[in-house]
């Protein structure tokens, strides 16, 4: 059990030290969209005084959510060397196990798919099915990525074999500034996406050291929806998920004929429900529960 205490005099630096001592990672604390400086008090940022006890078996996503809802502090969990943000499905007890200069793909084996406190029996029983009723009928979009990183990533993108990637909508993501920001590109072909990423990196003089990773969608699957019609929706959702919450204000539009929400799943262990108004909800569902939802969508067609 870890305990995080906030008093009227607790500073950002002191909270970060609590986290480092008890969990072994780096806690970033935010003032709006910028990181707060270590010397300011949390109360001056609008935080509530109090104590947050939490099991180290809790996932990072649930921990960040609890800090926001119970103590009114916006935080993100990063690796011990402050290199990259920890995947939301990783448990707090596993954060210290992540190697230095890790990539997001390195964390995938540490993702905990079991819902905290959930019944571990088969999700096909009546209790588990009832728990999933609130998500029934919501379309699911599943994205599997391939990453490019290192000295040769630009050459690999230029020489890409388009047959090994999702045809349409083609999706690319370029994380920079240690995972805090991301360029999301959704276009007609993977070649256009790859070229756009190269052009962006050249224009912004981003070299290998300034990149957290480049990811292209190797597979995009839709359940209860035809993904070939949803380039805008996918672009909106990924912008919101990956780029710190831009509220869909940039390159893409959420199609008004489409459902006002969709569940997005990736092969890093994330499962999120994204709404047309920019709201994101982390869903702590097991892989078995997700399969039940997919089957329900197939049965409802």
Give an account of the 3D structure.
It is built from 9 helices and 12 strands. 34% of the residues are buried. The chain is α+β, with helices and mostly antiparallel strands. β11 and β12 form a beta hairpin.
Q: Short description, anyone?
A:
This protein is an alpha+beta fold.
- Model regions low in confidence, pLDDT < 50 over at least 5 residues: 113-125
Number of helices: 9
Output mean pLDDT: 83
Helical content class:
25-40%
**Separation of termini?**
45 Å
User: Looking across the biggest beta sheet, what order are the strands in?
Assistant: 8-7-9-6-10-11-12
Order of helices and strands: EHEEEHEHHHEHEEHEHEEEH
> What does the radius of gyration come to?
20 Å
Major sheet: size, sense and barrel closure? 7 strands, mixed
Q: Quote the beta fraction.
A: 15-25%
Give a count of the beta strands, DSSP E runs of length 2 or more. 12
- Output the structural class: alpha+beta
Provide tags for this entry.
301 residues; alpha+beta; 7-stranded mixed β-sheet; 12 strands
């Amino acid at each position: 059990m870890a305990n995080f205490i906030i008093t009227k005099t607790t500073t950002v630096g002191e909270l970060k030290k609590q986290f480092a001592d008890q969990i072994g990672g780096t806690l970033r604390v935010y003032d709006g969209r910028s990181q707060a400086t270590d010397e300011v008090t949390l109360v001056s940022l609008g935080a509530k005084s109090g104590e947050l006890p939490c099991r180290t078996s809790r996932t990072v996503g649930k921990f960040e959510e609890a800090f926001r809802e119970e103590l009114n502090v916006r935080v993100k969990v990063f690796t011990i060397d402050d290199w990259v943000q920890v995947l939301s499905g990783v448990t707090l007890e596993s954060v210290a196990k992540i190697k230095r200069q890790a990539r997001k793909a390195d964390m995938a084996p540490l993702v905990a798919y079991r819902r905290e406190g959930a019944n571990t029996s088969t999700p096909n029983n009546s209790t588990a099915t009832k728990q999933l009723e609130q998500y029934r009928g919501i379309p699911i979009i599943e994205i599997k990525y391939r990453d490019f990183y290192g000295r040769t990533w630009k050459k690999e993108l230029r020489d890409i074999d388009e047959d090994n990637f999702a045809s349409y909508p083609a999706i690319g993501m370029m994380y920079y500034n240690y995972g805090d920001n991301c360029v999301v590109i959704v276009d007609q072909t993977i070649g256009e996406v790859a070229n756009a990423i190269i052009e962006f990196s050249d224009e912004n003089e981003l070299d290998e050291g300034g990149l957290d990773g480049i990811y292209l969608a190797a597979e995009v699957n839709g359940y209860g929806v035809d993904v070939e019609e949803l380039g805008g929706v996918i672009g909106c959702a990924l912008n919101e998920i990956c780029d710190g919450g831009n509220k869909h204000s940039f390159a893409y539009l959420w199609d008004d004929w489409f459902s006002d929400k969709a569940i997005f799943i990736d092969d890093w262990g994330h499962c999120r429900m994204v709404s047309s108004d920019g709201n994101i909800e982390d869903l702590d569902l097991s892989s078995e529960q997700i399969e039940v939802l997919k089957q329900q969508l197939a049965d409802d067609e």
